Amino acid sequence: MAVGLIVHATQAEAILQSGQADLIALARELLYNPNWAVDAAQKLGVDPKFTMLPPAYQYWLERRAATVPKVKASTWGSMRFMGAK
Description:
This protein has one domain. Helices cover 41% and strands 5% of the residues. It is built from four helices and two strands. It has helices spanning 9-17, 28-32, 36-43, 55-67, and strands at residues 2-3, 24-25.
């Protein structure tokens, strides 16, 4: 299980795909963003139109996704948090 400083969908997916862990545990990030799992599915292309959710949630998340600027993840661009130099 991997835990700690995992905040982005691509980061979690890379850990799983590389075989570094079989399970990703999230804690603080879910407190900060309770929609993390839905957001991750959308970003990874699993549910790009939020069709797995009720219509009211689909509407809100589609609007949010359209208005939030595309920002490069601060922790994913750098491996310093993992001890690399």
